[in-house]
């Protein structure tokens, strides 16, 4: 059993990470602005209300944990807001819910640079790429960045999916997608049996 801090634990991705971690017997410190109003009373969960941009409060909240899972939105939480406190608190591992925008499509271009990439998602996708770049520049931090497929959606927990590295995964039907629940399985699998230390990888059907 590990003690995990999840940043953004009340969001869709973070919430599924929390559920999967509890299912496997881990203890969770759930960090969000209003974590206590949503998660108080849950067995195995310590809700902590804080603004992730408060670096001193975040470093204090994540101290003595085995890992930090970050499911924060990239456009509102810059890399240093997470990386700095994790290093300050000497947490041994940082795992990040990534984005698909920095994955590659046939020909080598990034997904975000595709002509039909939705304008509404560009700011978040660009910030996700910057977060990955910041991790790649780290010389000591033990990190992993797991990118979902192009569609990151509600759906069943099947346990059946494929893993990749830097290329966008596309199904035989031409769709690139993964449910939050199955993403969480891949994420916790990586936490429990590390295969991608200081790397980005991806998951899809």
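Q: What amino acid sequence fits the structure above?
A:
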């Amino acid at each position: 059993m590990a003690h995990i801090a999840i940043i953004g634990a009340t969001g869709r991705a973070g919430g599924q990470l929390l559920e999967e971690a509890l299912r496997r017997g881990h203890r969770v410190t759930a960090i969000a602005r209003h974590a206590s109003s949503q998660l108080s009373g849950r067995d195995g969960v310590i809700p902590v209300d804080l603004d992730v941009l408060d670096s001193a409060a975040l470093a204090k909240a994540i101290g003595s944990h085995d890992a930090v899972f970050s499911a924060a939105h990239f456009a509102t939480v810059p890399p240093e807001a997470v990386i700095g406190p994790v290093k300050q608190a000497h947490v041994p591992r940082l795992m990040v819910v990534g984005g698909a925008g920095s994955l590659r499509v046939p020909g080598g271009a990034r997904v975000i640079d595709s002509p039909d990439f939705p304008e509404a998602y560009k700011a978040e996708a660009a910030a996700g790429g910057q977060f990955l770049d910041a991790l790649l520049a780290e010389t000591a931090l033990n990190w992993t960045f797991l990118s979902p497929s192009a569609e990151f959606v509600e759906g069943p927990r099947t346990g059946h999916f494929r893993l990749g590295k830097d290329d966008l995964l596309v199904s035989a039907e031409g769709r690139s997608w993964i449910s939050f629940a199955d993403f969480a399985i891949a994420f916790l699998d990586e936490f429990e049996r590390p295969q991608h230390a200081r790397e980005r990888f991806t998951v899809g059907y």
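Q: And what stands out in the fold?
A: The chain is about 30% helix and 20% strand.
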